[in-house]
Design brief:
about 180 residues, mainly alpha, 7 helices
Length: about 180
Amino acid sequence: MNDFLFYVIASTVALLSLLAVTLPNLLHGAIALVGSFFATAAIYIMLQMEFLALAQIALYVGGIVVFMLIIILLTNDLGVDNSLSRVSAGRQVGKGVIIAGFITALYLFFTSNPSKLLHDATRQAAPVSIDEIGIRLLSTSNGFIVPFEVVSLLLLAALIGAVVLSRRENKKEDKP
């Protein structure tokens, strides 16, 4: 039952991720991305990595996707009626060939030496407490505090840019 549940959730992640990048409406794609992140968190819970599951939900679903939705809805009314141009039949065939090649490459990779892959997957990592994770993330010598602050400044700049772009278009529409 546990393997079956994993395959169901993994298939859900793959399907929702595919929908996130192929749906013509950006708002619908962002909603599929939210579902993909929740399903990924479910896989983390199955692997007994509760901290990663909570971080996945808090950071990606709670922060980045909501931020993306705000940007989408603020700029050019992208959430209302945004359909990408239709793709020709040749491009559809090309996509199919690339996907089939990718699936074949994955199949060959995982069947070439399954005993080594299985051995690597069954190794146990050393137990780490949440305190150690927090100290490592926030330390200034070898931690991740500087990249975290740089990313937060970039996200703030993107949000300010979206507000400026949406205000400029509103001014153009007001003038007769």
